[in-house]
Amino acid sequence: MDAHDRRAEKRVRPPGDAVLEFALWPAGAAAPARLALAELGPPAVSRRTGYRLLVADISAIGIGIELSAPPPAPAGCLGRAGAGGAPIPAPASAPAPAPVPASAPAPAPASALASGPASDPALIIDLLAGVPALFLYLRLRDYRPQTAGELLSLFFHATAARITTTPGHLFAGLRFMRQGRGSPFDKALEFLDVSRFGAPGLAAWIDAVVRDEHRPGHDPDPGVNLDRLLDEPGVSASSPTRSQDDVS
Predict the structure, then answer these.
(1) What's the DSSP call for residue 146?
(2) Count H helices, E strands: the chain?
(3) Distance between CA 163 and CA 167 in Å, rounded?
(4) Would you call 238 helix, strand, or coil by DSSP?
């Protein structure tokens, strides 16, 4: 394993506040070379729709995640939020659902379930668990020294190495295959192969996380300031000088 491979395989558990935003879309096994945002559509899940994402570990070539669905709405409330985030109570006289005719069309394909907050979280979890790959968007707090206070936004096509589910939760190990970057010409994403060496920006971010973890929690003792070494009483020019004979 060469230096590039070792750096790509370096895995860390990022700080709990590192992920500021995320979104997931179901994807096919092969990433397109180019994807228009209109074709991408709204994400199946995101922080904005009430889901939570925990990054168990991350490297330049892959990520381990735990996705948690939003809690179910209280009985008698609709599954959307009103002012202040409170659920909207269902009307007391809400009509019963209309009967389904025998000639009703077949259910929508699985990809159509990823249509936003109105979808059933259980169906969404099952959908994401059954696809060969995902599109993953991450917006991370940047720890690289030259970008202090900035954000790192990443978009990947990632294949599923392992996926398991429990009620309301999805656990996945994803391998980054291609990284999407914004097209300079129109509203589209263009994909680059990162399956071997990983995403360079993410590798630098991981290096910064590791350095931050090993940084001392307090300032070291002052000790000797080498910038002011010659001003120190013991070595300053105003100190009594000794001849070469005295030294010997």
Answers:
(1) G
(2) 5, 11
(3) 13
(4) coil
Which residue is it, tokens 């192969």? Answer: 193
Query: Longest Cα pair distance anywhere in the chain, in angstroms?
Result: 113
The pLDDT confidence band at residue 222, using thresholds 50, 70 and 90, is: low
> Sign (positive/negative) of CA torsion 226, 227, 228, 234?
positive
Q: What is the pLDDT of residue 167?
A: 94
pLDDT at 15: 87
Q: Distance between CA atoms of 206 and 18, rounded to whole angstroms?
A: 11
End-to-end CA distance of the chain: 55
Neighbours of 15 (CB within 10 A): 14
| Mean of pLDDT over the chain | 77
CA angle 104, 106, 110 (to 5 degrees): 145
Residue type, 211: R
pLDDT band at 237 (very low <50, low <70, confident <90, very high): low
- Rg, C-alpha atoms of the chain: 27
Angle at 132 between CA 18 and CA 158, to 5 degrees: 35
Place of tokens 């939020």: 81
Q: What is the pLDDT of residue 241?
A: 52
* C-alpha dist (Å) from residue 128 to 26, 152, 206: 6, 25, 27
Q: How confident is the model at residue 75, as a pLDDT?
A: 60
Residues 6 or more apart whose Cβ sits within 8 Å of residue 156: 135, 136, 138, 174, 176, 177, 178, 179, 180, 194, 199
Alpha helices in 44-187 (DSSP H): 121-129
Higher per-residue pLDDT: 111 or 227: 227
pTM to 2 decimals?
0.68
